[in-house]
Amino acid sequence: MGSRGMPLLVVGVGALGGTIAARAINAGMTVRLATRSSESAEVLRRSGLRVSGIGGNARATLVEVATVMEYERSDKFDLILLTTKAQDALEVAPMLSSLLAPGGILLPIQNGGVARMLAECLGEDKVLGGFSNLGATMIELGVYEQKNAGHLLIGELAGGISQRGDRVAEELGRAIEVRVSPNLTGAIWSKLLINCSVTTLGALSARTMRQYMETTVGRKVFLYTYMEALSVALASGARPERLAVDPIPPGWGRINISEQEYQAWVDDIIAFYGDIKPSMLQDFERGRKTEIDYINGYVARLGREFGVPVNVNSAITELVHKIEQGQIRPAPERMNDLAQLTDAG
Question: Which of 252, 242, 254, 249 is nearest to 265 (CA)?
């Protein structure tokens, strides 16, 4: 492999991909970038990459960048880091499979069920799972700011620790913090539970979690959304893993849950996530397609497969699609639409 480690292709040079790529190049890693358009590639060739914020400043003035299609005639890669939106990841991944060197690894860093879907399509021998809690923003193409001291969590979808997982963590760890989980599927579900309830409900209501949890309907819809998603996770055989908070609320499975215990659990979630502007709300504001089909929509699809009631998550998915289509707008009254389902249930 040589002293420069695993040849790395970063596909998607948005906030996360750009931040990782800048730090990786700055660390002396062999990195190439793949963009959707030749125009974006040309911008990056001229500007290079620059990241500031937590983790310090890093700059890469000379970057090797081309469109994904142009890499079909290039060398193969030991590691492809896929940092696009979920829908784009599923579209481009089959093409990326042909760019892997023998024994090469595709590492998608997306929310929801993307890694599992890719493994079913391409084979688990080619795919590691991963997600990020590294906060970053793209000021403009090529210019990024790291907002926290977050990390990537990666691992085998089948569970356990593997040599290839450790090898990828060691390599990417030259640029950013990477942790390996023996229960990555459980960790993915734990983040998905938050995405389904905190992020999506905040986007629908145009509120932070702290704001919508101040209302009776907000608290009720949060509880039903979370409990539906957790029931699906457990029905799938996953063991949700503690991340920022315990994914299983106190008293789960008991008829009577202590209100005080439950409220303390909710307060812990609010303390971590309550004041964050939902990324999906930012998608609405920019007129972008959201990842709803891989978050609440994914939960709803699996719930129907397993025979688990998913009325609220299904309705959330439909409301988000209506907002994307311009039929309705994000507003606090969206919670009222969903609360009617909880009353009916």
Answer: 249
What is the three-class DSSP state of 135? coil
Which residues, in sequence order, are bridge partners of residue 140? 143
Say if residues 131 and 194 touch (Cβ distance below 8 Å).
no
Q: Is 244 helix (H, G, I), strand (E, B) or coil?
A: coil
Beta bridge partners of 64: 32
Q: Mean pLDDT in the chain?
A: 91
51-80 burial, b at 16+ Cβ within 10 Å, e below that, comes to bbbebeebebeebebbebeebeeeeebbbb
pLDDT for 142? 95
**pTM, to two decimals:** 0.88
- Give the C-alpha separation, 164 to 144, whole Å: 29
Domains, the chain, in order of start with CATH, read 8-182 (3.40.50.720), 186-344 (1.10.1040.10)
Which CA distances in Å does 291 have to 90, 246, 319, 328, 344? Answer: 12, 25, 13, 18, 28
